[in-house]
Write a structure and sequence with these properties.
single chain; 161 residues; mainly alpha; AhpD-like; 9 helices; globular
Length: 161
């Protein structure tokens, strides 16, 4: 798979109502007060599970811009074994995996942990954030969107570190 079937700009142009609706829903969790760094971590994890190169790269760049440490970003894929993640982040990542992998249901254990860590409202918004990134992943994978390039200034900074 070496080339895009369609780019994200085509979704904006051909079906702007779809793009705008998904984008608007995607903003709600942050507007409701969920930590934006946490939201980027769950978006990276869902995108890794779904194999969406566009979304992985996009949300890595977003996480870097929000100040998420590079080591934490690099270790999202192995968050269970990495000490960099807080309890809240671990619970959110477990919730994300349970909702993204939906092999039958969300276990009572994962639900209990999520309910203990997040308020009812926060858990509803977290669930919507997981749902939305899974929607974006479906588009990115189906149409093989080209991952966004790292901005030149950011690329030079990353190369220097």
């Amino acid at each position: 798979m070496s080339h895009a079937r369609q780019e994200i700009g085509q979704l904006k142009k051909i079906a702007p109502d779809v793009y705008n609706a998904v984008a608007a829903l995607g903003q709600l969790a942050g507007k409701a007060g969920l930590d934006k760094q946490l939201l980027e971590l769950i978006k990276i994890r869902a995108s890794q599970i779904n194999g969406c190169a566009y979304c992985i790269q996009y949300h890595i760049l977003q996480a870097e811009n929000l100040g998420v440490p590079v080591d934490k970003i690099n270790l999202v894929v192995a968050w269970r074994e990495a000490p960099q993640f807080s309890t809240r982040e671990r619970v959110a990542l477990a919730w994300t995996e349970a909702l993204t992998l939906l092999g039958g249901n969300v276990s009572d254990e994962v639900y209990a942990e999520a309910s203990a860590e997040f308020s009812e409202q926060e858990l509803l918004y977290l669930t919507s954030a997981v749902g939305v990134i899974n929607v974006w992943n479906r588009y990115g994978v189906a149409f093989r969107w080209t991952p966004p390039a790292r901005p030149k200034a950011q690329a030079a900074s990353a190369a220097a570190s």
